[in-house]
Amino acid sequence: MNESGQGADQAEVVILGGGLVGMTLAIGLARAGITSHVVDNSDPAAQTAEGFDGRASAISTASWNLYTNLGMADELADKGCPIDAIAVTDGMKPGRIDFRPAEGEGSLGRMYANRDLRIAMYAAAAREEAIRFHPNSHVVARERGKHGVSVTLRDGRVLKGRLLVAAEGRKSPTRDEAGFTPAKWEYGHRAIITGLRHEKPHENVAWEVFYPAGPFALLPLLDDADGGHRSALVWTVAEKDAAAVLAMPDAMFLGEVARRMHGIFGRIELNSPRSSYPLNFHHTVRVVEDRLALVGDAAHGMHPIAGQGLNLGLRDVAALVEVLADGVRLGMDVGDAQLLARYERWRAVDTFMVATATDVLTRLFGIPGKLPSAVRRLGMAGVQRFSPLKRWFMDEARGMSGNLPRLLRAA
After folding, report:
1. Whole-number Cα distances in Å, 371 to 95, 155, 180, 365, 402
2. So what CATH class is 13-80+112-183+281-366+402-408?
3. SS3 127
4. What is the pLDDT of residue 283?
5. Of 61, 63, 184, 195, which has the most beta carbons under 10 Å away?
6. Are residues 393 and 56 in contact, defined by beta-carbon separation less than 8 angstroms?
7. In degrees, to the nearest 5, what angle opens at C-alpha 401 toward C-alphas 398 and 404?
8. What is the pLDDT of residue 389?
9. Inter-CA distances, 136 with 14, 139, 170, Å
């Protein structure tokens, strides 16, 4: 990876956004022999610093296959906690669903600190000469023409390519400038993120507890160096209550958390600072334009209720890499409209189904009252007993359903 990009302003693809989706796309393209510029306005040293981001991500089986195929597995292997089961419950009342794969099928996924994912990603990118990385860089102009694209940076550099990819996240200026009109709305909720240390082991079980105010998720992490048991907490609260929850003294905050946990992990204590982010939904029907493709949260942002946001973005990556690589083998321009149309068709059904399902679940479990709760628990008990339906849900969670790109299949 050439970090400065000096003397090399021409590449086949210009990727705006060097986060977990954008840089992974560059790695996939490089391994397919396709050069790219990656422009990011952040500092990699800050992104990988201790304490920068306490978030953790659930990496599905398909996403793990992607990381394996891109040469990142060795670096990540001992840093992730397997998810051996997922317990889904309506307010810790009877009638929960337990998702657990059959013997020999492996885990339902792995939990990783985002920092560890970034470290492995930057290391993999550094091994690829086809990637020209431009950190701490700000875009001031984007142009798309009949024969190529160009991006002008604040320092005057001009980067040229055949295809522009927007991977800047939910507030993508490239998407907005291009005139995409996503369906979007605010949930009026905020996710409170922190790490917990607890008395009892989590036994590699992820908990999704639904309360009327929003989901309360406990995600298993590896034990710390002292053998302390750890989990990541994602607690959804109403936006109007978020400031008060963030301002609570630690003892009061832990008391509220413990009340919702019903003692499943015994005594708890905070293991990291609290942070938060607002929850909203957006989905673009179109994800391509002339010499432009959207990936990740630039195309679809959803509630974290099912932990599919990053995994959906990585599925975009795998599909786009395969489409462009196939085109290059046939001597086609990577910005060819036929290739982009194939990418859009491939991703349309998957992204729409996942986005819609997470929105429906959020609204369904947010209906207060005893009768809606009883109906939900009756439905969950039915899913628990009906093996084919449970199998379908597990395959969806693992990202192993549908027409999978090659990078998402086991090596």
Report:
1. 14, 61, 41, 12, 36
2. alpha beta
3. coil
4. 82
5. 63
6. no
7. 100
8. 47
9. 16, 10, 19
What contacts 179, CB < 8 A, 6 or more positions away? 289
Which residue do the tokens 């009949």 mark? 146
Gap between the Cα atoms of 328 and 266, Å rounded: 56
Residue with tokens 């489409």: 323
Written as one letter, the residue type at 332 is M
Residues facing 238 on adjacent strands: 189
Does pTM top 0.90 for this prediction? no
Strand partners for 300: 283
> CA 47, CA 29: separation in Å to the nearest integer?
23
Q: What is the pLDDT of residue 5?
A: 46
Q: Which two tokens stand for residue 209?
A: 């507890």
Kindly state the tokens that stand for 51: 């304490």
**How far is it, in rounded angstroms, from Cα 300 to Cα 138?**
23
- Do 230 and 243 form a contact (C-beta atoms < 8 A)? no
| C-alpha gyration radius of the chain | 21
Q: What is the predicted pLDDT for the residue at 280? A: 82
Residue 78 burial (10 A CB sphere; 0-12, 13-18, 19+): exposed
Angle between helices 22-31 and 309-329 (to 10 degrees): 30
Cα separation, 51 vs 72, in Å, equals: 23
Residue 137, exposed/middle/buried by CB under 10 A (0-12, 13-18, 19+)?
buried
For residue 88, the SS3 value is: strand
Q: Which two tokens stand for residue 26?
A: 């560059």
Strand order in the sheet with 149-153: 139-144, 149-153, 158-161
End-to-end CA distance of the chain: 25
- List the beta bridge partners of residue 292: 164, 289
C-alpha distance from residue 40 to each of 17, 158, 299, 314 (Å): 5, 14, 18, 18
DSSP for 373-388, please give it. HHHHHHHHHHHHH-HH
Cα–Cα distances (Å) from 95 to 86, 379, 387, 395, in that order, read 14, 9, 16, 22
DSSP-assigned beta bridge partners for residue 271: none
Distance of alpha carbon 24 from alpha carbon 116, whole angstroms: 14
C-alpha span between 186 and 375 (Å, rounded): 26
Could you state, in chain order, the average pLDDT of each consecutive group of 10 residues for the chain (411 residues)?
Answer: 64 97 98 98 86 78 94 93 89 76 73 93 96 96 96 96 96 95 80 94 92 87 94 92 95 96 96 88 89 95 68 94 97 97 90 62 56 54 52 57 85 73
How confident is the model at residue 91, as a pLDDT?
A: 81
